[in-house]
Amino acid sequence: MTPRHLAPALTLVALLGCADHTHSPTDAGTVDIAALPLEELVTYTVDTADVPSVAAALVDHTGVTSIAAAGVRRAGDAVPVTVDDQYHLGSNTKAMTAALAATAVDEGALSWTSTLGEVLGGELTELDEGYLDVTLVELLSHTAGIDDATVIPLIEALDDDPSTARRESLGVVLAVPPQGPRGTFRYSNVGYVAAGRMLEVALGDSWERLLTARLFEPLQMRSCGFGPPGEPGVVDQPWGHEVLGRRLRPIDPGADGADNAPVLGPAGTVHCALGDWARFAAMMLRGLEGSTDELVSAAGFAELRAPRSEDGYALGWVAREDPIQLVHDGSNTHFYSLAILTPGTDEALLVATNVGSPRAEAALELVLTWYAARQAESE
Fold first, then answer.
1. Alpha carbons 185 and 100: distance in angstroms, whole number
2. Is the distance from CB of 305 to CB of 314 less than 8 angstroms?
3. What pLDDT is stored for residue 159 in this prediction?
4. Quick one: CA dihedral 343, 354, 85, 331, positive or negative?
5. d(CA 234, CA 229)
6. Whole-number Å distance between alpha carbons of 309 and 373
7. Distance separating alpha carbons of residues 244 and 197, to the nearest angstrom
8. Angle between the N-to-C axes of helices 93-106 and 274-288, in degrees from 0 to 180, rounded to the nearest 10
9. What is residue 156's predicted lDDT score, i.e. its pLDDT?
10. Angle between helix 358-378 and helix 11-18 axes, rounded to 10 deg
């Protein structure tokens, strides 16, 4: 099976900006969604959107304040999901890669203006001159001129070791001139692969080990890992699903194409239980609210949240105003996740489901309706 590349994401981010979430609570049916507690909301969402499962958590600067999960790990199977189950986060990995970059900048191993030529020029001898002065910030903000549709097909046989694969694949894709103008937003997973490789070279270890040592372990995110959650052939974690007509087809985590190629790790291969993902969200809230005792410095948090283009993309997040929010969604086409951080109210919403189709969007739209009503009540 052809590997499934990361979906462009930001579908629900767009919905956040243009959809009307101010309609009456009964618009979605006879149920007053806004009045539902979180535990009932996720059950209602699974039943209404016909998805295998939904997990959701509300978070403040201390961690989880409310968490719930409903549905099954695998369609056609009776094993229920739990609040401790792991979901694939897709492109919500990007915020973690950006935070990892901030730790490298804080210690002086890199700067936000470090360039591909400075860091990777020694190993990428065919680096096109158009990429020589592309900066870390440009890669993390999708403004480096890289077009995934053009360069991902150039990546064919890759080494089994992800770090080696990143070096070899970038040697191919960055030998081709930039496909778009620098400074213009063009969503690029390959840009994050390049940023991840810069971190590997600057810090002397693989992106996977760096993220584990610098983020997962200090924040005690013990359930986090890479690739599809669970053991192949065993329903010990939620399985991803694809939609075939009206039928949900479960995807064994060991199946070919169950996830993106490991080379794309920095762009989106992390899986995590929502309670541990919440530890990262809580750290982000603390930093955005002014804490100076975090893994990232105050200056680093300021860089992470600053928009770099007219589209509002910051570093691993889309920055929105009124209210100030950082948002992102993600999918490997078999799972879907969404994060919304609202530092002004000291709250974050995390949602995940184990299907990556329009059904997932319908499910998360119901949760967004509920969350918008909650936010309106707090104003």
1. 22
2. yes
3. 65
4. negative
5. 11
6. 29
7. 37
8. 50
9. 55
10. 40
Residue 24 CB-half CA count within 13 A: 5
Residues 78, 83, 84: CA angle, nearest 5 degrees: 95
Write out the two tokens for 297.
């410095």
Distance in angstroms (rounded) separating the CA atoms of residues 167 and 197: 7
Q: Which segments within 72-219 are labelled E, that is strand? A: 86-88
- Residue 257 Rama label (left phi>0; alpha psi -120 to 50; beta): left
The reported pLDDT for the residue numbered 150 is 84
Separation between Cα atoms, residue 148 and residue 135, nearest integer Å: 18
Host H or E run for residue 251? strand 247-251
Nearest to 199 by CA among 272, 116, 93, 319: 116
318-320 and 86-88 strand pairing: unpaired
pLDDT tens digit sequence for 179-188: 889 999 999 9
CB atoms within 10 A of CB 305: 20
